[in-house]
Design brief:
This protein has one domain. The chain is built from five helices and no strands. With 92 residues, the protein is mostly helical.
Length: 92
């Protein structure tokens, strides 16, 4: 699985504008879509972001997936995912 570099966009515009009211399950599904490459090429940074947001909303499975993909990511990529999650929260 190729990990996308910071700045590349493997997710659709719909993923980037997910409503703030989305449930933990919906955010988890967005993480799965990014991780599996359902809508575009696999993007672990975006997947980590969505799993992180889902975990914050109480999805225990998202926590496990976030930990699993983090093993395949560099520290720089994890930091980028965390930054994106914070930005998403601030925007929504």
């Amino acid at each position: 699985m190729r990990i996308m570099e910071q700045g590349e966009s493997g997710t659709s515009a719909a993923l980037e504008t997910a409503p703030a009211g989305d449930t933990a399950e919906r955010l988890f599904e967005l993480g799965l879509m990014c991780c599996a490459g359902r809508e575009a090429a696999p993007d672990l940074v975006s997947a980590h972001k969505w799993f992180n947001l889902a975990a914050m909303r109480g999805n225990a499975e998202a926590k496990r997936y976030r930990m699993e993909i983090a093993r395949e990511m560099s520290k720089h990529e994890i930091a980028a995912a965390q930054r994106q999650a914070r930005e998403w929260l601030a925007w929504h």
